[in-house]
UniProtKB/TrEMBL annotation:
Species of provenance: Saccharopolyspora griseoalba
Name this protein carries in UniProt: L-threonylcarbamoyladenylate synthase
Any coiled-coil regions, as ranges: none
Keywords on record: ATP-binding, Cytoplasm, Nucleotide-binding, Nucleotidyltransferase, Transferase, tRNA processing
PROSITE patterns: YRDC
Origin: domain of life: Bacteria
Stated family: Belongs to the SUA5 family.
UniProt cross-references to NCBIfam families, sorted A to Z: L-threonylcarbamoyladenylate synthase (TIGR00057)
Pfam families: Sua5_yciO_yrdC
Amino acid sequence: MSTVFDCTNPDKREAGLAAAANTVRAGGLVVLPTDTVYGIGADAFDANAVRALLAAKGRGPDMPVPVLVGSWSTVDGLVMSVPQQARALIEAFWPGGLSLVLPQAPSLNWNLGETRGTVNLRMPLHPVALDLLREVGPMAVSSANRTGQPPAATAAEAEEQLGDRVQTYLDGGPSGDPVPSTIVDLTQGNPRVLRDGAVTREQLTDVLGVELEADR
């Protein structure tokens, strides 16, 4: 049985965040608003919850799940090191529509799929998402839709696709423009754009002082 909370109402927002935090801690799934599209999320360190997330979307571990964080400092505990290029991009574009792929810390006990020792990190620009992330810590979050279907721009669209596979829905109103985050790979020295999105290549070049390579 799913529960939907209208987070545009201050009283229901508080209740919704509390319910969502309890759901995540219990290994359940939550739909939450972000600054791009709605996401389906779980505790990043709960392998069973991440498997349930992938099953809810109808996809396998060959498409690993990104991780959302609630603060810049959280990144330091999740990766082997934060290179200067990453710090510059974080300062310029977080919270916002930029995802960074970095080598994960080898000590982490999580299973996000076939990541090949990397992790895709982002800090979303949405107050409901940030409040939840700061309460429960890093979350594995993917777009709130069944694989092959359009991403959800509202909680209702997410519920129509995912139904009772998700225990708690946080309705923050319509999402912003349905533009995905830009993904930049910083695992191999020279930064590479894996996916064009909300942050343009020109903006990235302005910060880094170099033109970014496209993924081949």
